[in-house]
Design goal:
This protein is α/β, with parallel strands linked by helices. The protein contains 11 helices and 13 strands. A 9-stranded mixed beta sheet has the order 5-4-1-8-9-10-11-12-13, sandwiched between helices. It has a 4-stranded mixed beta sheet with strand order 3-2-6-7.
Amino acid sequence: MGKLLVVGSVALDTVRTPFGEAAEVLGGSATYFATAASYFTSVDLIAVVGEDFPEHHVKFLKSRGIDLAGLERRPGATFRWKGEYTHQLNEAHTLDTRLNVFESFRPKIPAHYRTPDVLFLGNIDPDLQLDVLRQVERPSLIACDTMNFWITGKREALWRVLDHVDMLIVNDAEARALGDHPNLVRVAKTILARGPKHLIIKRGEYGVLMFNEKQMFGAPAFPLEEVRDPTGAGDTFAGGFLGYLAATGNRSPEAIRQAVIFGSVMASFTVEAFSLDRLRVLDYKEIERRFREFKRLTHFEDVP
């Protein structure tokens, strides 16, 4: 089982959807990622929280076996995000963002974190992503996320990050912004030519696309009777995807396709409840069962 290191945000979210609302609940990219990945492998987490961060959230993360030696607690308030969704659940409308202690976040990698098998650079400033890369020994697999804010404001620094990255995991809007074209197939060619060996494009309720030089693979989103809160689904996808690859150590095309489905499975559970409430009660047998349901959903025979 490989060691997985994630660097990102731990936050307190206030979310409203057509199906309810939740205030001051556990959120953040690193939180969703690490929780999903913890169902597959051991996870080390680097993030920062304020002095107001509730202890019961710390206990929950520890209960998942996540190593929190890299979770800094600083004077001040924890990063907060407030958003809402309409029935178009693919897009969050941000109502308020307060970076608080996250604004001055400078990741410090503890000595026993510096030799991960897999590294995930969450959605943070590309210069900080580069700094993390300088602090660790080269893992066998490096993946990263980004967002339009960095694509627009720090494009050159982001391209420097991608020179060192094996996988880029972004949503379709971010991919189009980075590749500067509306067609995702052409976007993939542009991005893959700049460094990453694999591009994973998350498309919300429309599923996911995976590109590399040799193949393209697509999977639908799992059809659900009830979707309550899509917050964190993309980060949970990344956690399931990389958690599986870290656990197996297998980087074959078949394993990467399996990892895409495991990521999609974890995202499908996340959206069934607010915050991480569904992942809190999730059992690994449920994950395996939904993986098999995914296989039945997408399987078809070749023509004679």
